[in-house]
């Protein structure tokens, strides 16, 4: 890849969205390249339709297997519609969630097995992974309480999955950090937003100074 691909990960309520609000202007200030912000599930028209299907609270009978396959399908479409074309143009792609989310939420949370979900997503993405993944860590109790306190939109189908589910999600994320420390860096989601943003910017700039010479 001639561009730069960075993903953001974390349990629900970790503070990724707030961090992005502060981080995007910094990235754009220090580079002449186009910075593309996208998200999963979704990010492109077909993938957004799949997102609605997955997160709709009316679909409580959806099996874990169906959920995992739908996420992989949305990711495949998103990758080919948004991420790969941007990287081919030497752009910087910031994706709010990517493969690690599926491994944590479906592999760990839904207990489908991390290897199984990783294999499904390897097929869906052709093995394309970010050069850097920033994992914002927070306890499920704090994260879910933030959602209830500060967000004015209804909880989605995964957010209402229960405490044990979210405990497994976080434990799986922490295992991924342990297993792939060269790619995945853990940040403290309990830190103030400015400190969290500064830590994210430090990791990005120190690893890829050639993309941010300004």
The arrangement of helices and strands along the chain is EHEHHEHHEHHEH
- Let me know the average pLDDT: 93
Tell me the major beta sheet. 5 strands, parallel
| Count of discrete domains | 1
EC number: 2.7.4.9
Family: Belongs to the thymidylate kinase family.
InterPro entries: P-loop_NTPase, Thymidylate_kin-like_dom, Thymidylate_kin_CS, Thymidylate_kinase
GO cellular component, one term: cytosol
Short description:
With 214 residues, the protein is of the alpha/beta class.
Output the keywords.
214 residues; globular; Thymidylate kinase; ATP binding; nucleotide biosynthesis; five-stranded parallel beta sheet; alpha/beta; transferase; kinase
Write the SSE topology.
Blueprint: E1 4-9, H1 16-29, E2 35-39, H2 45-55, H3 64-88, E3 92-96, H4 99-109, H5 114-125, E4 132-137, H6 140-150, H7 163-179, E5 184-188, H8 193-207
Parallel strand pairs: 1-3, 1-4, 2-3, 4-5
